Amino acid sequence: MAATANAAGLGKLTVLSSLGQPLRAEIELTSVSAEEAGALVARLAPTEAFRSANIDFNPALSSLRFDVEPRNGRQVIKVSSSQAINEPFVDMLLELTWNGGRMVREYTFLLDPPDLRAAQAPQVTAPVDVSNRAGQAPAAAPAQTPAAAQPA
């Protein structure tokens, strides 16, 4: 995997659809050079990448479509599906390739029911790098230590 100083990066995913609807989401692209912009290809990672990352492959993901588009001087990946997504939690591995570069990122997001979604802003989720974690157990979250009570 080639790495350069201004290699493209994947940012936050914003979910624009609800549970039981075809997926509509957008992923920010960061640090995209003019040279990389024309060569970016986004797609669902191969099923073996899901196995390597210990992530169950949801068959509904097979209908996902990824389109890299310019927007307001930046690049975004539009993610859409042809069929409704009926699982509230979705784990997706996205593969981004460009001239001499490749990265795989995990996105986990929640699809709210339509009635709850109408009252909320779009859900934003940060990516998780899975490129180097194959075969590793997930890191434990840091424990919070309660503050000691002060005498009165």
Automatic annotation (TrEMBL):
Family matches, as InterPro entries: FimV_N (IPR057840)
Annotated Low complexity bias: 134-152
FimV N-terminal domain ranges (all copies): 8-114
A Pfam family that the UniProt record links to this protein: FimV_N
Region feature (Disordered): 122-152
Designated name of the protein: Pilus assembly protein FimV
Species of origin: Duganella margarita
